[in-house]
Amino acid sequence: MCRSCGSIVGGGEAQCAVCGTSVSSSAGSNQTRTIADGEAVRFARAVLNRPYKFTIVLLILNIFIFILMWQTSGIPLSMSAPLPFAVLTPFGAKVNSLIRTGHQWWRFVTPMFLHVNLLHLIVNMYSLWIVGPYVEKLYGSAKFVVFWLLTGVAGVVASYLTVRPALARGPIGAFIFKATDVPSAGASGALFGLVGVLFVFGIKFRHELPEGFKRAFGTGLLPMILMNLVIGYVLRGFIDNAAHLGGLVSGAMLALVVDYRRPGERSGIAVTWRVLQWSAVAVVALSFLKTVQHFRDPLYPRPVAITPSAQPAEPQNAAFLFYAKAVNDAQEALVVALQDKNTSNIDTAVKNLDAAPSLDPKADELRERLKALLLRTKEAETTPAPSPPRGQTKPASTTLVQDIVAWRQEYGEWLKTGARSHSGLGEIETK
Question: What separation in angstroms does the CA of 240 have from each of 46, 194, 418?
Fold first, then answer.
């Protein structure tokens, strides 16, 4: 810790990067201590002594939600093993099919508070602890909260828009685009947004910043940004690079138009920013309220306790899970309608089939045929059966049963062949 300005000094560094004060000391040394620049010290103290309470609130909230997810999963806590899709999805991870067909808009907000494993959480929360206080101290808590929400949502939107299997080819395409609709979660879209804010801040206000701040922000952040992009390129397919870029660009754009709190300015803030701050808090609260309301929707794979011996060897694609669940429920509705003469579940089964994601042309054909079978079954059970036309040897109910059996045979063949590309290849994407 620098004795002059209070900023954090890295181990082994000879002087503070912000104010320039020498921090090295050795017994018997006669070296003259570097005198800190007075203006730099005044600026650093005025900024670094400000509170950063919302950074701490975000840290606690992210850790708390991860603990809830881990306890719900029932699996042993592991540094690198990911939480199951069946936990990430109900808690609000980004899944395109649920946003698109289920209109679950809150999945543009909740993913920035979720993490797929303990290592993911530690890396992102350490980054928040390093970067967050600077942004909150420079811009104030109200602007910081708005920055966090807007850049985080921008990252999720970028992730949503880049699920394009046809474009996810080659080194550049695979870096930005995604071939499968798998759950995506993490705070690093918003974290890249904060980095984008500091990057533009250092360039925009370079003429009024002390030398130490110029080195810490602006172009001084380029090595870190480039290093993270290289890591994203190497780990493409596991890291949601589109979310990182979306957060970075949106943060830079916000810093271009928003001013910061200069040293000596009064602590008061415009009413507009207070309204925006608490509106952002309300959006987050409403998003998690919607998550709770839909936590046990029938299309979700239910969170269950999974022991190491019972845990599947390969994670399944979330889109395939939703499709298979809808089809299985529809088949159960058919059985109940035919055996118990109870058609009360058919409308729900048809609705769930409509909401199921599209996997491939054959899967879509099988879904439409199953919907037709459901509707035929409902009609057969609710309307009196007419006398068979002359020359017809089989009653309509027999024809319906045969069509169901034929459909099941084709569905079974698809599960053995075409479904292989959907059922075991998904990787959770981290942000």
Answer: 37, 17, 27
